[in-house]
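Suppose a classmate hands you a notebook page containing two proteins, each written out with its sequence and a corresponding row of structure tokens. How would you begin to make sense of it? This section walks through that situation. The first entry is reproduced here exactly as it would appear on such a page.
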Amino acid sequence: MSSLRVCVIYGGWSSERDVSIASAWKVRPYLDELPHEFVEIELSQDRKWIQVTEHERKHVDPLRFLQDIDVALLLLHGVGGEDGVIQGFLETVGVPYTGPGVAASSIFMDKILTKHQFMALGINTPEYFTVTGAEAQDRAYLAQLWTEKAARWEQGLVVKPARGGSSFGVSVVDSEHDYVQAVNEASRYDDRILVERFITGVEVQVGLIGSSAAPETLPTLELVFNDGQSWFDPDTKYGSDRSRVSFRMPADVPNHATTYMRDVALKLYSHYGFEGYGRLDFLVPDSGLPLALEVNTITGMTPTSTFPLMAEKHGLAYGELINRLIELARSREEKVA
């Protein structure tokens, strides 16, 4: 592939802005190794496009700026970055981009819509119910939901904003009081909330790379929690103390569980026309089939992110991974043209 002019886009206005910027910092040193010209755009919190160079930061008109761009390398996370918004804009102006398209991005950014897809396709997933932002303020209604649904979930429950990532606004609780507090906390991030049954087991991630017609599964990755840690919270993901979690590749789970998770991942990847890459998160319980939890359409590329580790185990060093994603974006655009 000949040299391309690639625009690295990061920042944004979601709660995951800092994670996106950390991904950009991780990517930056590797760009000099690649046979392309790179320019950087930081999306500001007030949705302005800022070109970042070694010497200056300046506002640019995105329509004019993108006229000379061959590929957009998306390092955005959360609302405005993973939900089909930037993808739709780039398709409108004819710039190919890394990662899945508009439909897959908009569906799988939303954890409630993701649940609907799992159930429609017969994919095993934990029980759940939903709460709106208005319902989160109704103490009597929350108590009713607790009595009718959550109280019978003996191991507790997980409360999540529907359209959030990086575990921001997520809580794991086991009492009615904490459940109410968790719903209120999640409502700070989104007006739609997913309340899911907590099940103990092994958390496993399955990464994929390639076109929807020919995806490759990466080695499975198991999250091994230490010192009483029970889930992958933001402090564990991005904090300086990494002692609370370690990673095992491949995951130490039964062969039938690995086969099931890979089959589900490949099914979703092809069914929804994923392109470039993606990651699915599963829980392998003590008995029964693995449970699908979430789908990530733009995975983190920070120094502590798991997708680059899986890719490296697969034989793709960090710089090679970035180049592969750029090539996949360009080849997808050539097929459509």
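The notebook's second entry, a different protein, reads as follows.
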Amino acid sequence: MTEDSSLPLDNINMILWSKTYGYVLEIALEKDLFFAVERQTAVSLERLAEILEMPLMSARVIAQYLCGLKLLNFNDSEFSNSELSKNYLLNEAFSREIEAFSARTFTNFKDQLYHPVPQPWYEIKNRDNNIANVHGISNDFFMAGTQHNWRVQKGKELAGQFDFSGYSYLLDIGGASGGWAMGIRSVYPHLRCDIFDLPDVTAITKLVIEKNGDNNTGVIPGDMFNDPQYPVDADVILLANVLHDWTRSDMITILKNIYVAYPQITLLVSELFIEDNWQGPLLHMIQSILILGPDQKSGWQPSYSEMEDILKEVGFGKVRRELNLVIAKKG
């Protein structure tokens, strides 16, 4: 296969995870969700969780999927049936046909929603295990192979989206292999970059950086939750696919530690953000199931407005959005 004919990685992910759309619909039909919503005209997320009989954050995942599939509408913090659902899914005979069609094994998917297990990063945060055991950071796939190459590409894309020419020192918090910073520096070689991550991670990050011959990127071992010693002269900070791993309260802790460390800073939050009406992009809905954990220990995929609200709550006064990016400034 030639390079020109290869599928983008995002398309492959969509193909691999397309079954989850059917799983979500089957769960909704099993619980008569659309009939229950129609009886009440519109329902809150809390009520949706009651109907589905699952944890709140799991119900949020289901709701995002259904909104993305245009089966639910999300307005004013409530959910209602879309015209598509009203026309077809409120027909019991049609619903039974769908259930029969989708009658296949999806026990693991349901178990993840109804009985979510702690994600590895919470085991690390709570000191229940070490990084190498639960996250496989020594694995080439995670640190230096496919995942690293994906980060480099995303860094290049961000460099084409955001103008770094007026900045001199980029701090990449939770930067793992350093791929985002390397991608950015390939476009803006004047930037000095440091990767801030846990000591076990930065030990490997340093090897990846040395292998790539990047003499202007370094590492800073630390903990973004517990007294992080951020360099005072950084003028732009990147959080790329980091915040979605944590609960809202943990997000605020991470962001407050950044906010209080700098009198003046530009913060770039790069995520697979959900649209404010939760109707896409569908690929971003897939991410929400990958980071799901038990309530109070769950990641979640925020919408643009949810992230903007959190940043403003922390204290950032200037907040704006771009594609897959929310930019916040202090000072």
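A careful reader of the second entry would note: Confidence is low (pLDDT under 50) at residues 1-5.
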